[in-house]
Amino acid sequence: MNIQIFGKSKCFDTKKAERYFKERRIKVQSIDLIRYGMSGKEFDSVLRAVGGIDNLIDWNSKSQEVTNLKYTDDTVAKEDKAFDNPEIMRTPIVRNGKQATVGFCPEIWATWE
Questions:
Q1: DSSP assignment of 7-62, as one string?
Q2: At what angle do helices 40-50 and 75-84 cross, to 10 degrees?
Q3: Which CATH class is domain 3-107?
Q4: Cα–Cα distance between 60 and 33 in angstroms, integer?
Q5: pLDDT at 1 > cutoff 80
Q6: β 99-102/93-96 pair status
Q7: Cβ contacts of residue 50 below 8 Å, gap of 6+?
Q8: How confident is the model at residue 6 (pLDDT cuts 50, 70, 90)?
């Protein structure tokens, strides 16, 4: 199992995800989403796995960019904005090969083991 956790340093759910895998002695690669972002292929893989950009954006964010994205139906524009500004994504983003989850989802991670 090759687990990658993309998260924000001050995100409580990211810390919970890291603890979940650490308690089960599963090695993870933690990546600071704000500092390093994702590669294009990683981003595309996550989008396919989670079912599209609308599941990846943190709609509860008070960011002006997220507010503006609520009023557009252009998925390419949403994808470009999220790729360029990873702070508007929900975290943690946990990848296991071609599988991925957004948010704290231990019930799904348990099936990966």
A1: E-TT-HHHHHHHHHHHHTT--EEEEEHHHH---HHHHHHHHHHHTSGGGTB-TT--
A2: 130
A3: alpha beta
A4: 18
A5: no
A6: antiparallel
A7: 56, 100, 101, 102
A8: very high
- pLDDT, tens only, 53-69: 999 999 988 888 888 88
Helix (H, G, I), strand (E, B) or coil at 77: helix
Tokens 């001050």 correspond to 10
Are 92 and 5 contacting, i.e. CB atoms less than 8 angstroms apart?
Answer: yes
User: Residue 9: pLDDT above 90?
Assistant: no
SS3 85: coil
Find out whether 96 and 2 touch, Cβ atoms under 8 Å: yes
Q: At a CB cut-off of 8 Å and minimum separation 6, what does 6 contact? A: 31, 33, 38, 86, 89, 91, 92, 93, 94, 95
> Which amino acid, 1?
M
Q: How far is Cα 106 from Cα 16, in angstroms, rounded to an integer?
A: 10
